[in-house]
Write a structure and sequence with these properties.
This protein is an alpha/beta fold. The chain contains 25 helices and 31 strands.
Length: 878
């Protein structure tokens, strides 16, 4: 048989696979006496296509062991995906379309074959906030419909605004591209209203059914009862349920959770796929209850685009295991700090103050609004005047606080519009100074010079005067509208703007809302996403503590995705290992009701570097005592090292090393040296507990201690026990644009410092992986402590050619009390036995060992305000 004939046979075999499982199709070929060589070629092609999808390294995914590989990707004759792919190509480049294609292939391959007699699976897709999750699940719906799934239920948040937005997008991207193939049961104008004769809808095989349903109790009850009417027809209706914002309302709620479970329980062939950028609650669900929403069947982590501005891009993060701290993102210079003394002017101090609260035009609010107008005018000059431009003000959840901002913003708009129109020197000068300052701090992505103020000034007046000020909340009649042409808008809101809803062209965010819950805080970050053509213009204004929290969350998110990568490399499933989520001393991972079944994770330091990066820097007696106590702890450790250890030949100008120090001196140092509470990995009790536990098992009983300074210019400023001396090193703090009592130096150790007690083969490129391997072979059960004398007053270093030197951007002097600040780093070898001794650590994870207990009365998620945002007004209206 020639290739054209084999290709025709392949096409026919693929068609057979739509209606039966792969082994059934193969058996049917045998029953039809198809030649063995043809059958073998069909099976080979199918296995090659499905394996290519199942083994993709991106997106990261882990699924059921021994799952049937059935999905071979789109093919000729498909109608839904080709149409959507063509539509995507109109506004995305080819590479971005390819990424959506590949990622959605991977998700569809995780679903059950629609011809499977019965199935009820649970999966989770991790996206990024404002990063195109809707495009992914739309592509998944297209491809699943092309392969035989017939009903698509999209659970779209808890607000009308988000449900309408999702319904409108799916009409545009699914229904309108192939009208004969789809029947909408819900509309943009209304939520689910049970159509008569459910049996006829579900029995028909000519059309796919689309339902976009709000997670609201009365609505879900009506859906459940409607499905119950057609139990017999559902047997042949493969269903895909997409739960958008799957961590909201679905998990651990008294009403919504059981109702979604009831809906799923009515359908014999159903895949439930949760989509969220904040999966903390989903990963902490008790996995033993097969009817709940632990992602027992698969977890998939969507990639982000190169231009995506996410938490680590904007805020930076801490290094993970084996990462070179110097290569970890430090954050873009787009975050502006709202001083603590202005917070009382911008949000009520307590709930009882809400009725009488009126915000004032604080300096930070004024700068934020003026920059919004400048950035929007700059976009007009760049040819983006036909796009939307938005500013978000998120100060509180109470709608009365939202409304109180309106007179302040209107007065500022009137003042600025009049000043620009009349060329008032004070107003125009204020705009000019702000433009000059901000445009220097972040340059355009193409590397070209920023726009000159004159060109921005020319576009400023219509931008300012044409700006709408919208209070977007459930009581407001003037809501965000991006469907009636380009708009410049300042949106003030709370809950209705903090989940799922996209603020088009978001340029400036002014954020003083307080939340200490991971998922809530991340979802409020509407500023994450893509900013094509204006990547340099966004600015985020927030308090310093909130900024630090987002840096922590960026670390949590990166670490969580590394955990998922471990599933793949270690061939594990979600039921073999629970994803660990790092906790925080002041923040909750998720609400207590959602984490009742979670347990503290066990973590260990084997193979890790732990270093100090935070130093108190106020000129107070307490901070002076802090550094004096640390200096005394260092002095005692060095004295013990010289007394009981051996001075190494590697000791030279600027550095010293002692070998063989007993562990009791290291434990004493860890107990005495004060690590800042922000350094979660360097908690004193955790370090001491780990070292003590491992030394009792025979490891880490001996340590090396080194001092890393500079070659002395003269006699040396810091004397050492062996008679030598070193000069202090320079470490500067991150410049956060406002005085912070705690300095963050980001990185203490240099890239080769860990090699102080190692012999590096000539010609080897030094990196963390090499250093870890060398430590395992040369110092297998010996730890290393590195001590750094830091110049407390050194200025920021300058770089550049002579006469053109400039201080390193984003850095400020440490300016700590005293003359010397001592930093410390601990290097832990991996255990020689291969199994590290974990200590209970500040992580949460699902408990894979428990039997699910009798359910008690769970606390509802606080969605009371959102549930007032219903079609028709009162709860239960549709």
């Amino acid at each position: 048989m020639g290739n054209p004939q084999m290709d025709a046979a392949w096409s026919r075999y693929q068609s057979m696979l739509d209606g039966m499982l792969p082994h059934e199709a193969t058996q049917q070929l045998h029953d039809l006496f198809v030649p063995d060589e043809v059958i073998e070629e069909m099976v080979r092609r199918h296995e090659a296509a499905t394996t290519e999808i199942a083994t993709l390294r991106e997106p990261l995914a882990v699924g059921r062991e021994n799952a049937v590989r059935w999905y071979a990707g789109p093919r000729a004759g498909d109608r839904n995906w080709p149409a959507f792919e063509k539509r995507l190509g109109r506004h995305l480049d080819r590479d971005e379309v390819r990424k959506i294609d590949t990622a959605s292939d991977r998700v569809v391959a995780m679903l059950d074959h629609p011809a499977t007699p019965t199935f009820r699976s649970r999966g989770l897709v991790l996206g990024h906030v404002q990063s195109g999750k809707t495009s992914n699940f739309t592509a998944v719906c297209c491809k699943a419909a092309d392969r035989g799934y017939r009903m698509f239920i999209v659970l779209s948040g808890v607000t009308n605004s988000l449900r309408r937005q999702t319904q409108t997008r799916l009409i545009r991207d699914l229904v309108d591209l192939n009208p004969p193939l789809w029947h909408q049961i819900t509309k943009a104008e209304h939520d689910f209203q049970p159509p008569p004769n459910a049996q006829s809808f579900l029995a028909s095989k000519d059309q796919c059914l689309l339902l976009v349903v709000k997670k609201n109790g009365p609505v879900l009850k009506k859906l459940r009862d409607w499905l119950e009417e057609a139990r017999e027809q559902l047997v042949n209706c493969p269903t895909l349920i997409i739960d958008d914002e799957a961590d909201q309302a679905t998990i651990a709620t008294r009403r919504i959770n059981p109702l979604i479970r009831d809906v799923i329980g009515r359908i014999p062939k159903v895949c439930y796929v949760g989509y969220t950028a904040t999966p903390f609650a989903n990963l902490l669900v008790d996995p033993v209850d097969e009817e709940d929403f632990y992602p027992r069947d698969f977890i998939l982590s969507l990639p982000r685009g190169d231009d995506y501005q996410g938490p680590e891009t904007l805020f930076g993060r801490n290094p993970l295991d084996l990462e070179d701290p110097a290569e970890v993102p430090g954050g873009l210079d787009m975050i502006r700090t709202i001083p603590d003394d202005e917070l009382a002017l911008l949000r009520p101090a307590k709930r009882s103050a809400i009725p009488d609260f009126a915000p004032e035009e604080a300096s930070s609010l004024r700068r934020a609004v003026l920059w919004f107008w400048l950035a929007t005018a700059a976009r007009h000059v760049r040819g983006q005047g036909d796009g939307h431009s938005s500013m978000l003000i998120h100060a509180h959840s109470d709608t009365r606080v939202h409304d109180s901002y309106q007179p302040v913003l209107q007065a500022l708009r009137n003042e600025a519009a009049h000043g620009v129109r009349e060329d008032d020197p004070a107003v125009v000068g204020e705009f000019r100074d702000l433009w000059d300052e901000e445009s220097r701090r972040v340059t355009p992505q193409d590397g070209g010079p920023p726009l000159d103020f004159a060109s921005v000034r020319a576009a400023l007046e219509p931008v300012v005067s044409g700006t709408r000020i919208v209070m977007d909340h459930y009581r407001s009649t003037d809501r965000l509208d991006y469907d009636s042409g380009p708009v410049n808008v300042i949106a003030v809101g709370g809950n209705t703007l903090s989940r799922g809803l996209t603020l088009e062209g978001l340029v400036v965010s002014f954020f003083v809302r307080s939340s200490n819950v991971y998922d809530t805080l991340l979802q409020m970050g509407r500023w994450f996403g893509y900013r094509p053509g204006y990547e340099d213009l966004p600015r985020i204004f927030m308090p310093a503590e909130t900024r630090r929290w987002f840096t922590h969350l960026a670390t949590v998110e990166a670490e969580m995705r590394v955990e998922i990568d471990r599933y793949i490399t270690e061939h594990l499933t979600p039921l073999d290992m629970a994803v660990r989520i790092r906790s925080h001393p002041k923040m909750k991972v998720t609400s207590p009701a959602k984490s009742k079944g979670a347990v503290r994770g066990a973590a260990s330091y084997g193979g890790q570097l732990v270093e100090t990066r935070y130093f108190p820097c106020e000129k107070t007696a307490e901070d002076e005592r802090w550094h004096a106590d640390n200096a005394a702890a260092v002095s005692r450790l060095l004295a013990a090292a010289h007394r009981e250890g051996t001075l190494d030949a590697k000791t030279r100008a600027g550095r010293a090393l002692w070998r063989g120090i007993p562990v009791e001196h290291v434990l004493a140092f860890v107990d005495e040296y004060r690590f800042h509470p922000k350094a979660l990995d360097a908690a004193r009790d955790l370090l001491g507990g780990y070292i003590g536990k491992r030394s009792k098992a025979g490891g880490l009983v001996s340590w090396n201690v080194g001092v890393v300074g500079k070659r002395p210019a003269g006699g040396g400023l810091i004397g050492l026990p062996h008679g030598g001396a070193v000069d202090p090193v320079v470490r500067t703090r991150l410049d956060l644009g406002v005085s912070d009592p705690v300095a963050d130096i980001k990185t203490l150790t240099g890239s080769r410092d860990e090699a102080l007690d190692l012999d590096i083969p000539e010609g080897e490129e030094v990196n963390r992986s090499l250093l870890q391997r060398l430590r395992t072979s040369q110092q297998p059960e010996r730890g290393l402590i590195l001590l750094y004398p830091i110049d407390a007053k050194a200025p920021v270093p300058v770089r550049g050619a002579a006469g053109q030197e400039r201080a390193v951007a984003g850095r400020a002097p440490l300016d700590a009390p005293g003359d010397i600040v001592w930093g410390a780093a601990l290097v832990f070898p991996k255990p020689t036995g291969g199994v590290d001794l974990g200590v209970e650590y500040d992580y949460l994870q699902a408990d894979l060992s428990r039997v699910f207990p009798t359910a008690g009365e769970d606390e509802d998620e606080d969605i009371s305000v959102l549930e007032q945002d219903l079609d028709g007004g009162p709860e239960g209206a549709a």
